[in-house]
Amino acid sequence: MTRPMIGISACLLGQPVRFNGGHKKDNWVTDTLASVADFTAYCPEVGIGLPTPRPTLRLIAKDSEIRAVDSDTQSKDYTAPLQAYFDQHTKTIGQLDGYILMQGSPSCGMERVKLYGDRAMPEKIASGIFAERLQKAFPNMPIEEAGRLNDAPIAESFLTRLYVYHEWRTTQPYQSAASLIRFHSKHKFLIMLHDYAGYRRAGRMLADLSNSSDLPNIAEQYLTEIMNSLKAISTTGQRTNALLHLFGFLKTYLEPSEKDSVLAVIKRYQQQDLPYVVPLTMLRHYATVHQQKDGYMWQQSVWAPYPEHLNQYKNIV
Ligand code: SF4
Is residue 130 within 8 Å of 39, Cβ to Cβ? Predict the structure, then answer.
């Protein structure tokens, strides 16, 4: 696996760019994720020329629009400069494999940012101005907030999407029908793990690639489909289903006693008695042992969708 390049709110890397002159260094990002990925940092507020320290901004609802203004007087409107800052960097950001945003910020917050309106209390319903532009411009890009990445299933989905998107961008499987089919073939169990219906839809999209002029369009729709599927948090039922499908392919090579032990372990996982990684590792062992007979199973990305020492799924049941 090559190293993905991730865009990130600069304060999360420890840069002292916050309104109070501080930072919000995220140790998982700087210690763990940094071992496998590189970062390009953006601070939209410093980028538009605001000093550090500076008065805080807030989002307000005004004339059916969301505006970023200074919290004290609400007379200085920074919406257009923040939007322009994103627009200036759109091309570079488009080369990234994912983005990690600082939660709650009127510039960088992905969702649930406080929006001040007529009510006495602000409602947590908005996206920051920069983040809103980012999500609209790149709907297929994996984007998450640092705070949400403390949740293992959300982190697992983000890391999975990050590496699939990185592979899509760097190997460009959409260049030919054959490479697109190979890409899908490699990731099918991974997609199934998150969204069985999405996996079926994605497969159907590739059913007829005979007209090469349709390929760019189909490939783009396919990417949207699988990125949406991988965003879904996988349930125990979906994981069990995917494990049973993997077993179904591998069982030809197994002795009766081996089949029994695999099925027993899958059942214990289904009963939430064992973490997901246990039956997965067992099946992977048999895929490794029989890789000469079945290269298709061995090449599946579901065995290790991202570098294993990140291991977000080790405790997922
Ligand atoms: S949240 Fe965004 S705008 Fe605020 S300090 Fe961090 S990088 Fe800068």
Answer: no
How far does residue 11's CA lie from ligand 1's centre (Å)?
6
Q: Which atom of ligand 1 is nearest to the CA of 10?
A: 7
Question: pTM for the whole thing?
Answer: 0.95
Q: Which among 209, 215, 155, 163 has a CA at the least distance from the CA of 186?
A: 163
The number of the ligand 1 atom at minimal distance from the alpha carbon of 107 is 3
Three-point CA angle 32, 33, 36, nearest 5°: 105
* Residues 23-48 pLDDT 10s: 999 999 999 999 999 999 999 999 99
Mean pLDDT estimate for the chain: 95
Ligand 1 environment, Cβ below 6 A: 9-11, 17-18, 43-45, 102, 105, 107-108
Q: Are strands 98-101 and 143-145 parallel, antiparallel or unpaired?
A: parallel
Taking the CA atoms of the chain, what radius of gyration do you get in angstroms? 22
Distances (CA, A) of 181 to 185, 186, 246, 296: 6, 9, 19, 13
pLDDT bin (cut points 50, 70, 90) of residue 169 is: very high
CA distances to 14, 34, 58, 152, 161 from 30, rounded to whole Å, are 8, 5, 28, 17, 20
- Ligand 1 atom closest to the Cα of residue 19 is 5
3-state secondary structure of 272: coil
> Whose Cα sits closest to atom 8 in ligand 1?
43
Backbone angles phi, psi at 20, to 5 degrees: -95, 10
Q: Average pLDDT in the 239-253 region?
A: 96
The conformation of residue 145, written as its DSSP 8-state character, comes to: E
**Residue 241, CA distances (Å) to 32, 255, 310 in order:** 31, 22, 24
